[in-house]
Amino acid sequence: MKITGLVMLLVLAVFLVIPVVYADTDLCYEHVQQKQYDEAIRECTRQINGEIRVEQPEFSYIRRGIAYNNKGQYDQAIADYSKAIELDPKHAKAHYNRGLAYQIKGQYDQAIADYTKAIELDPKYANAYYNRGLVYNNKGQYDQAIADYTKVIELDPKDAIAYNNRGYAYGDKGQYDQAIADYNKTIELDPKYVMAYYNRGNAYLNKGQNDQALADYSKAIELDPKYFKAYYNRGYAYNNKGQYDQAIADYSKAI
Question: Is the residue at 183 inside a domain?
Answer without folding.
Answer: no
